[in-house]
Amino acid sequence: MLSNAEHALPTALIVDDDYVMRMLERETLAQFGFDVLEAADGEQALDMLDDPPPDLLLLDVEMPGIDGFEVCRRLRQRWDMARVPVIVVTGMDDLASINQAYESGANDFVAKPINWPILGHRARYVLRSAQAARQLSELKEKQAAIMRAIPDMIFVMDWQGTYLDYKQGYATTAFVSANELLGKNMAAVLPADVAMPIQQGIELALLRGHLQTVLYKLPMPDGSHYYEARIAPNGVDKVVIVVRDITTQKLNEDKIRRLAYFDTLTGMPNRQNFLERLDHELLRARRNHHQVALLFLDLDGFKRINDTLGHSAGDYLLQAVADRMKEKLRAGDFVARPALDESGLHFARLGGDEFTVVLPDVDETQTVSMVATRLQALLARPFLIGTQEITVTSSIGIALFPADGDDAATLLKHADTAMYHAKDQGRNNWQLYHQSLTTQTTARMALESDIRKGLERDEFRLLYQPQVSAADGTIVGIEALIRWQHPQHGMVSPAQFIPVAEESGLIVPMGEWVLNAACRQLLEWQQRGVCTARVAVNVSARQLRSPSFLDRVAAIIAETGISAEQLELELTESILMDPESRQVQGLYRLRALGVHFAIDDFGTGYSSLSYIKRFPIGMLKIDQSFVRGLPDGANDAGIATAIIAMARSLDLDVIAEGVETRQQCEFLQQAKCPKLQGYLFSRPLPPDEVEILLRRGSIPLPGDHTTSQTLSGRACNPQ
Ligand code: C2E
Ligand code: CA
Ligand code: CA
């Protein structure tokens, strides 16, 4: 690119057969700063082109041999000489030869007689303009190469958006082909929602003289394509627009965003997304003095559905719930402002079966309670999963900004607390957060640490409640029921601490203590010759799920040396819905040792009766809620009778618990319920008191005066 002229003096080759002319020309050009070479004819001139190549030729036309026109023509055929400026010296001042000079490739001409000072200026000018032309063409070539290498589409447009020039990028999918574009206005080619922002970008680029970027989307045969247009001002009334197809990048970005910010199962915003956006929304609400409501929704008994129908059914249900919520919230069925933005801050899935709904600008709590009620009604409509119809209820906790919290995290925590309160209130309802709930939570935590201490300090005791034969009042077993001998609060009922123990996991060590205590008591009675029949011990679901539990049972039996036949474990109905094979196997192992199993509170759960056969269950305990309504409650009577009949057909033993009245007892006797338990026969008693009953062996049934009441020293006959 650098010419000789930039290093040293430019070289001029003078070609003339006339020696005098050559001399005069040399003098002139040397004065104008040229290094001069001479050739006496065309042949010689062509031979001299290489060493060193001249920067300018001054070429006489009339020469013997090859004339000046021919020299010029041949010179131009060489690629490296194509641009060397040539001035032709004509003797003929006629138009024809001037024409011929240009046609053979000359850049300029001078006619004889020569005006010498002008020749010098001309030579300089021709050289300069040739250099400029060469630089320009090199620049153009470079530009063309760059353009070819650019994957983008490039447009030149005027300020009104008319296409002036166009280049298709090799990697950019064109919306309209080039020949359809030129001369047209963008507004006639692109959809209005794309043309408009580009037009604005053009105007801004020209106004401010800065690069503007516009992102847009166009429908293409293979789906939507995303583009980024960079608009650069080009002069005062034109712009260059470089358009890149960013579809792949955009899709990747979207995917990453979705993964980081959206729940993959439901496509709803996730917790992170939700918290960030809620904080934003709160900032705005604070500025505008608006109230914001946060609804925290949790499905009731979702785990049970997951366990009974399988995880994929559970996932499907969550999707269906999400879809139903999205659809209604988008449609604006619940609130005036349908969504905060396209991504929908309005709802999010925090994980599991927990969803949140945000209501911005709520003027009164009534609006919130209406939304909560409608949401619950919406979800309460049955869902079809496969062929199965499922109905779910939900519990909702509500926290309000700014009253219940100043930031997203606090608000969420309080809505969560309120949701738990709704669960405590029997599920399928909504609750507003209030300060006392936090107090309750604190109280719960205090209770937890109290229970822990209670276990360490051995403050728990067992009471025993007899179970009798419905035929003759014989004591067939006793159920161990825990009590807390609290140093300050006196005797605490399990209803107060079992739920907290379950939630915190303390039920595991507590359950182990119960089992140990019951087995040791059993052993002590046996050693003193007291007939105990069977001892029933309650086992909570959480306890049963603890991996070490079943091993511990076997170990305790071995350690105490009691007969496993005398131990009955009362399991909750949920075991039937959670047939985890490891657990079922464990139960069979214990059954093989001799341990009995009963299903407690039977009839309150959701269990599929056909599952019972999969477990080594020997006994059903009819829940006291059904016994309470006997004998007049038609429903309860029906359920109790049905359970008894079903148990018989499955070859299971049955006991009715919570028998308090003579009428209940008689009804159950008539219904052929083989065993009974309840205050009518005995309350749960401390060991020394129950021992007296055990020694007697039976408890008189109402209306029965014949049953023996003494029988101390009766033969032990555990069933
Ligand atoms: P549950 O297993 O259903 O125990 C029967 C409950 O009914 C006992 O309440 C008992 O005192 C009460 N009850 C017995 N007969 C009658 C009656 O005629 N009328 C009425 N109204 N109630 C009667 P308790 O001892 O307060 O226990 C409550 C629950 O706490 C138990 O219900 C059981 O689920 C749980 N629980 C008790 N001890 C333990 C334990 O050692 N481990 C575990 N995991 N849970 C226990
Ligand atoms: Ca029980
Ligand atoms: Ca029970």
From TrEMBL:
InterPro entries the record matches: Biofilm_reg_signaling (IPR052155), CheY-like_superfamily (IPR011006), EAL_dom (IPR001633), EAL_sf (IPR035919), GGDEF_dom (IPR000160), Nucleotide_cyclase (IPR029787), PAS (IPR000014), PAS-like_dom_sf (IPR035965)
Sorted UniProt keywords: Phosphoprotein
CDD domains: EAL, GGDEF, PAS
Start and end residues of each EAL domain: 444-698
Classification via SUPFAM superfamilies: CheY-like, EAL domain-like, Nucleotide cyclase, PYP-like sensor domain (PAS domain)
SMART domains for this protein: EAL, GGDEF, REC
GGDEF domain span: 290-435
Modified residues (4-aspartylphosphate): 60
Domain Response regulatory: 11-127
Gene3D superfamilies associated with the record: 3.30.70.270, 3.40.50.2300, EAL domain, PAS domain
Pfam family, one: PAS_4
Record protein name field: EAL domain-containing protein
Source species of the chain: Candidatus Accumulibacter contiguus
